[in-house]
Design brief:
- By secondary structure, this protein is of the alpha+beta class.
- It has eight helices and seven strands.
- The strands form two sheets. A five-stranded antiparallel β-sheet has the order 2-5-1-6-7.
- The radius of gyration is 32 Å and the shape is elongated.
Length: 295
């Protein structure tokens, strides 16, 4: 029994919507390209060279001892339906699932994609809130994509998906799909003659880098290249993260020290004022006593 859906699940667009929603929620890094009617043989050639470049990164990572970065077979580039993808993206950005609630499966007022049980059956079904539910549709019906995302979801799109954030794999992919010297040089003919096949070159020329979505954050073209240009790959990412945390820690420490010094100076100033007032009071008291004795 499938959960209730606003639209029939057998429709192809419904299944694609579910697929895109799952991809957006489970993929930490996505790179967006605009494509201009690549032919099937051009897609085959581009994917072949992309796989070759990514496997080289896997081999290099294994040589360095990073056995958890075997990602080549999991990194895919695919053409997406822009309208459906935009709808799925709005659901991911703006819709939060609600707690499960039980509904009567015999209630024909509830839109469901499952077959209703025989008449008189006491069966019940869970009304599971999901990306295709009525509540999801109502939550995002009047929502629009943010200003950072809207320019990416236009025209004919292809998306490159990564199962984890890896600067080294991104750099290799960019060198194939969107080469740019000096950080993303295209493979040389001597080392990779297959990349210079006419079908590959024709396909690459029809791809335009638009931006990226990394850990829910949107980057423009330069931002996407920045992620891929971090020196040292995974070590570089960890180093930059450590530097950011260290800088943040130093800033917090300086703030606390400044506040502590300010408090100390304030208390010292107040104590000095009190001591001076106390000294003046004692002096005046002694003067009064001396005057009384003379009298």
């Amino acid at each position: 029994m499938q959960p209730p859906s606003l639209k029939p699940p057998e429709f192809r667009r419904t299944q694609i919507h579910r697929q895109y929603t799952s991809m957006l929620r489970s993929t930490p890094m996505m790179i967006f390209f605009q494509h201009t009617n690549l032919k099937s043989n051009e897609w085959v050639a581009v994917r072949r060279e992309l796989a070759v470049a990514l496997r080289k990164v896997d081999e290099s990572s294994k040589a360095k001892g990073y056995t958890d970065l075997d990602l080549a077979d999991s990194i895919k580039i695919q053409v997406i339906q822009t309208g459906v993808f935009g709808a799925a993206l709005r659901v991911v950005e703006y819709y939060e699932t609600e707690p499960l609630k039980v509904i009567n499966a015999l209630d024909t007022a509830v839109p469901t994609s499952s077959e209703l049980p025989p008449s008189g059956s006491p069966s019940q079904a869970f009304a599971i809130p999901h990306a295709l539910s009525r509540s999801a549709y109502e939550a995002v019906e009047k929502k629009k994509l943010g200003q950072a995302l809207a320019p990416l979801i236009v025209g004919q799109l292809a998306v490159l998906t990564f199962p984890t954030v890896s600067a080294e794999h991104l750099k290799a992919a960019m060198s194939i799909l969107s080469p740019q010297a000096p950080n993303f040089p295209a493979p040389k003919r001597r080392t990779d003659p297959g990349y210079h096949d006419p079908s590959v070159q024709a396909g690459v020329q029809k791809l335009l880098l638009l931006g990226a979505r990394v850990e829910g954050k949107v980057f423009d073209t330069e931002g996407a290249r920045w992620v891929g240009s971090i020196e040292g790959g995974i070590d570089g990412l960890r180093g930059q993260l450590a530097a950011m945390l260290q800088s943040l820690g130093a800033g917090v420490t300086n703030t606390l020290e400044t506040a502590g010094r300010s408090l100390y100076f304030t208390m010292e100033s107040r104590r000095t004022m009190l001591d001076e007032e106390k000294g003046k009071t004692e002096t005046e008291t002694e003067t009064d006593r001396a005057s009384d004795q003379k009298q």
